[in-house]
Write a structure and sequence with these properties.
Pfam families: TAFA. Belongs to the TAFA family. InterPro entries: Chemokine-like_TAFA, TAFA-5. GO terms for molecular function: G protein-coupled receptor binding; receptor ligand activity. By secondary structure, the chain is an alpha+beta fold. The chain folds into two domains: 32 residues; 87 residues, no CATH class. Strands 5-6-7 form a three-stranded antiparallel β-sheet, with no helix packed on it. A two-stranded antiparallel ribbon has the order 1-2. A two-stranded antiparallel ribbon has the order 3-4. 9% of the residues are buried.
């Protein structure tokens, strides 16, 4: 009797998980992003100039209300829209953990400085 109860409980749990998975797959059609997430759709690198690499990245984001596409820890992410509106780029924590962030003088972007002195400059379009 006890074994039968356990079997029915496991079967019910499995059925519940299947139903949840089915509902989730119906809500997120192929090609749709979950709210608050981003994905890189294009990445282009140009190393034609000595000691300089120019990288252009295009991301697709499905941000929640009050958020906008930005960069966190060197990856595309949804960030608070006020950060972009006020051009306070370093508040979205765009650099890696061991890098320092500084605003460009004209607030058109930011720099990430690595401990060895290498500088990565990012400008927002």
């Amino acid at each position: 009797m006890q074994l039968l109860r356990v079997a029915w409980a496991l079967a019910g749990a499995a059925l519940c998980c299947f139903v949840i998975l089915l509902i989730h797959s119906r809500l997120l059609k192929e090609g749709q992003l979950a709210a608050g997430t981003c994905e890189i759709v294009m990445l282009d690198r140009d190393s034609s100039q000595p000691r300089r690499t120019i990288a252009r990245q295009t991301a697709r984001c499905a941000c929640k209300k009050g958020q906008i596409a930005g960069t966190t820890r060197a990856m595309p992410a949804c960030v608070d829209a006020s950060i972009v509106r006020m051009k306070q780029w370093c508040e979205m924590v765009p650099c890696l953990e061991d890098e320092g962030c500084d605003l460009l003088i004209n607030k058109s972007g930011w720099t990430c400085t690595q401990p060895g002195g290498r500088v990565k400059t990012t400008t927002a379009l």
